[in-house]
Amino acid sequence: MGANLTNERVLSTMNVDGSRRWLRPALSAGGFWKRRAMVGWGLIALFIALPIVPIGGKPAVLLDLARREFTFFGTTLYATDTVLLMLAMLGIFLAIFLLTALFGRAWCGWGCPQTVYMEYVFRPLERLIEGDLKAQVAMDKQRLHPRRLLKYAVYAVLAVVLANVFLAYFVGIETLGHWVLGSPGDHPQGFAIVLGTSVLMFLDFAWFREQMCVVACPYARIQSALLDKQSLIVAYDRGRGEPRGKLRKTRLEDTSLARAAAAPLAGDAADSPGASAAAQPTSEPAGDCVDCGACVRTCPTGIDIRDGLQMECISCTQCIDACDAVMDKIHKPRGLVRYSSQDEIEQRISQTVKHKLLRVRTILYPAGLLVIGALFLAVVSNRSDSEVTLLRGIGAPFDVQGGNVMNQMRVKIHNHSTAEHQYQVELVGQPGLQLVGPENPLKVKKGEVRTVGFFVTGKVEAVRGSLDVPVRIKDGNGFDKTVNFKVLGPRP
Q1: CB 100 within 8 A of CB 223
Q2: pTM
């Protein structure tokens, strides 16, 4: 048992001695790979377009952390829209839960940017520049091989491009354009961000690679809680494939033929030990798996799908394409490795278990998504184009001069609309008080947050202790809101 533990590999990317096991998966360009290629290149185009293509005067997706504004397809959410942000996050989580319950880690293999860029941009360039697996292994002995240096140079250029695309989601294409085209001295912080992100991108795709999926990504750790026995996964059919063994041209297909071949040895000759051994039928593997290892060589995370469902499997379907190609060559039906469920694989012989689309979790998750979607739309439809907050001035709560009490009030207005608005600020039902400000009405540009200071003044006799004063803010576009402001004065 100790020897077995010594020979076990803890991670698919780690050798027994603890050193890094570099994975160079063989390409299996079958039907699934071609479908994934179409999806992958479509997603790459989408990834690049989302922060660039404008919708309603803003990028389709912009996560402006500095301004705390989050734009999705023409709708901008702010940090104060806590309910909407919470509903959006819950919706994303439930959508991931539903996708996993139905199709396992389909997102990892088909839609994750790490997988898409790695398998359809960086690995193809690596094979083009360095050559096949044998040539790549030979280059390991010569660290400064010209082809490998050329590969790293191409990777560096791509890393800079991808880093800029990634940053466009957070700073906007206009700001990013100033950073790229301007002098680094004019925006040292922006230059440092671009440089740091480019370095991280390069290290990810040139060195860290599949370890992002195997070691760093938390999704693999929680998938066991999101899957059930009916979830579609990439699985090996043990009932059909085992016992596995190398394919032999001289395999006897029927034990009756073996008995017939051994029949002439009956009688006295059969009493000898040699004759008795010859009379036994040849033991041959009965399973369809020929133990060629194609599914292992093509796996981008280095696992053996025949060992069952594993955390490292990203459902990329490369093992399906590799196995189907082998089955075609040996004239066996496809599907030894296929999309299936654990129940279907484990109870294949009885054929009593069928894949069920409607299950408890596949009903509850969509129901939750419908509820969240309805709440989101309801909140958005009742959401005002303007947001007003009244703040007390900084410093003393009030000041008394010449028999008058003065309270400083700051009016903070956030214009959510796509046009400039003018907001009128006035006191309601307070004839003994007066509102004094540098500007009234207030001009607030689209998307702008503006704070203007006002003074609420009145005779000391009108304000004793505290008084709740209604303040009305309105514009000419239907916005009309009254907020109470507490005016303070000397105690009676």
Answers
A1: yes
A2: 0.77
Residue 164 has pLDDT above 60, yes or no: yes
Total structural domains within the chain: 3
Task: List alpha helices for 8-145, DSSP H.
Answer: 31-49, 82-103, 106, 113-117, 123-130, 133-139
**162 in the same domain as 38:** yes
Give pLDDT tens digits for 379-423: 888 888 888 989 998 888 888 888 889 999 999 998 888 788 999
| Helix/strand/coil for 483 | strand
Q: Dihedral sign for Cα 353, 357, 358, 359, please.
A: positive
- Structural domain range at position 473: 386-488
Cβ–Cβ < 8 Å for 436, 454: yes
List, for residues 432-459, the tens digit of each pLDDT value.
899 998 888 899 988 788 999 999 998 8
If asked whether residues 222 and 260 sit together in one domain, one would say no
Position 85 in a domain: yes
Buried residues in 134-169 as b, exposed as e (16+ CB within 10 A): eebeebeeeeebeebeebeeebeebbbebbbbbbbb
Residue 13, domain member (yes or no) = no
Q: Which residues pair with residue 130 across a beta bridge?
A: none
